[in-house]
């Protein structure tokens, strides 16, 4: 962790201890019944996890993006759902501290740092998926208010969030469409309906819901940064942090799966020797370790770009693409190392296998990531930017 300063290394160590001492021994209790981990969330508030990206002057911890990635990895190593609980919240934190007006920063950041206000972002729509420019959620100005109509889906932490960063159309006639989009800072209230929890393969404990906006009124001052039409550019910057966070989640899941497989391969014997000595198993372990290491390095490289204040869409896309695909493969290979036990709920590896697909699909599918990467490769080649 040479990219972190001493204080940040201590923070990561604290998170690692929290995971090993509190989370891993009890995660099955929550997983089995898909229960919201209120107890863990309250501890995370007290430990400052919700204020990691909040500036110190607003009561936050104000760590680097690299430290944030390592904290995310440690949480995901224990239970990926806990990393998800701070995911959207932290992206909204980044958006407000980077683009928010002084009034928006003063209003939200102190309580977000304490976790007394938790945030989520709302981008995906039922008919649009990753095609954000096809979104239909819109606003109409009415006096000093904006009236919102539309719907969003697969919104994590929807039921437990006090603030929603909503990407929507504020000018439906704009061409191209993204020039008419804004991010609104919306507090739940009349005109917003939160659906029942959507059933999921993995990522249990943290809800995902649909949001339906019907003539919901918010003040015009809810527009992030105060100027309508900047939402697309703002959210694309926010998604750089979001994709780094998803990549870090994938690293954590892969690390957990690899560690369990490595331990099991030393304990389990067949044909008179530990199974790691069989070449087929040893090769799996070697490939798994390499994928975990490469994923971590790609993720930290993208985080470093954000900390340097330069565009990281290419690097964040690469980190998210590679790490999520690697986590899926590592989780599957961990099941192979465990043999029949890998298919049993008595071992943790089946949970890693259920959680891993989310990182492939979330924060822009990997098919979208490849499009982003290709476009940025061409753009940087024209300016001799390289990679």
Describe this protein's structure.
This protein has helices at about 5-25, 25-35, 40-45, 65-80, 80-85, 85-100, 100-115, 230-265, 280-305, 315-340, 350-360, 365-380; strands at about 120, 140, 145-155, 165-170, 180-185, 190-195, 210-220, 270, 275. It is globular and about 80 Å long. The two termini are about 25 Å apart. By secondary structure, it is of the alpha+beta class. The mean pLDDT is about 95. It contains twelve helices and nine strands. It folds into three domains: about 5-120, Acyl-CoA dehydrogenase/oxidase, N-terminal domain (Butyryl-Coa Dehydrogenase, subunit A, domain 1, Orthogonal Bundle), CATH 1.10.540.10; about 120-230, Butyryl-CoA Dehydrogenase, subunit A, domain 2 (Beta Barrel), CATH 2.40.110; about 230-380, Butyryl-CoA Dehydrogenase, subunit A, domain 3 (Up-down Bundle).
How far do the termini sit from each other?
A: 23 Å
Per the CATH scheme, the topology name of the largest domain is: Butyryl-CoA Dehydrogenase, subunit A, domain 3
CATH-scheme architecture of the largest domain: Up-down Bundle
User: Could you give the order of strands across the largest sheet?
Assistant: 2-3-7-6
Helicity, in percent? Answer: 40-55%
**How would you characterize the largest beta sheet?**
4 strands, antiparallel
Secondary structure: number of strands: 9
DSSP summary: helix tally: 12
The sequence of SSEs as H and E is HHHHHHHEEEEEEEHEEHHHH
Question: Overall 3D geometry?
Answer: globular
Sheet/helix structural class: alpha+beta
Low-confidence stretches: none
Quickly count the domains.
3
Question: Rg, please?
Answer: 21 Å
Query: What is the residue-mean pLDDT, rounded to a whole number?
Result: 95
CATH class division of the largest domain: Mainly Alpha
Strand content: 5-15%
CATH superfamily of the largest domain: Butyryl-CoA Dehydrogenase, subunit A, domain 3
